[in-house]
């Protein structure tokens, strides 16, 4: 096997991204209450790999990522909160870096109260821009349960390609769940729409 030509550029010192109608910024301690507002909702968690969370649960699970900008290392990854009109409406994660492939995974969650207006789409678009422009990645993936219709729609709205449908891939919340893999390459993202 030959050595991968991909080289990860140094992580930025701070990360703040302005998208259309949204701002992505690092987590601050005072965001925990707002995050627990939606991460504590059973319906929001239906397709997420955790049960409804309290502020303490959130701190325990992803506290090590708060404020960090490096994707590298076993516990690397970036969590950004999504702000719209000054309020925290959701959060995003970029993680599971594959250094040789120059690839990472993106995850998203938005409060039901902020849903249905294109804000999640704008936020994910801004994070994918960041993944390619700031982190120099060449590929971004999303893993989605096919029953998660809003996430499937979001990935497709952004032009991500459905690359795989794994059948009964894992035991998930009381059933054998299927798994879709969506992906987009940097060169596709940069290409002007046909
Ligand atoms: C997945 C999730 C983020 C999608 O939220 P969403 O509200 O559907 O997404 P958006 O905020 O982009 O809104 C899209 C809607 O706004 C509409 N819209 C209005 N203006 C828009 C614009 N400028 N751009 C895009 N969409 C726009 C779209 O047509 C769409 O309408 P619809 O709801 O009638 O289909 C949200 O459902 C969620 O957080 N779910 C729980 C967590 C989860 O499952 N995460 C993923 C695990 S893989």
TrEMBL record:
Single Gene Ontology MF annotation: transferase activity
Enzyme Commission numbers on file: 2.-.-.-
Enzyme class: transferase
Sequence ranges assigned to domain N-acetyltransferase in this UniProt record: 22-187
InterPro entries in the cross-refs: Acyl_CoA_acyltransferase, GNAT_dom, Ribosomal_N-acetyltransferase
UniProt keyword annotations, A-Z: Transferase
PANTHER family registered for this protein in UniProt: RIBOSOMAL-PROTEIN-SERINE ACETYLTRANSFERASE (PTHR43441)
Protein name: GNAT family protein
């Amino acid at each position: 096997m030959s050595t991968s030509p991909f080289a990860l550029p140094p992580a930025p010192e701070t990360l703040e991204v302005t998208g259309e109608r949204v701002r992505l910024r690092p987590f601050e301690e005072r965001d925990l209450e707002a995050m627990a507002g939606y991460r504590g909702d059973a319906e929001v968690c239906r397709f997420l790999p955790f049960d409804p969370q309290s502020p303490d649960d959130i701190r325990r699970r992803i506290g090590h990522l708060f404020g960090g900008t490096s994707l590298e290392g076993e516990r690397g990854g970036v969590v950004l909160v999504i702000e719209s009109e000054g309020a925290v409406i959701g959060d995003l994660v970029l993680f599971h870096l594959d250094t040789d492939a120059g690839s990472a995974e993106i995850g998203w969650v938005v409060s039901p109260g902020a849903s249905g207006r294109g804000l999640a789409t704008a936020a994910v678009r801004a994070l994918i821009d960041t993944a390619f422009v700031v982190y120099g990645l060449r590929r971004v993936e999303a893993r989605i349960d096919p029953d998660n219709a809003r996430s499937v729609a979001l990935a497709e709205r952004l032009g991500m390609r459905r690359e795989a449908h794994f059948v009964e891939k894992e035991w998930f919340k009381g059933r054998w769940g299927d798994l879709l893999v969506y992906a987009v390459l940097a060169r596709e993202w940069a290409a002007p729409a046909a």
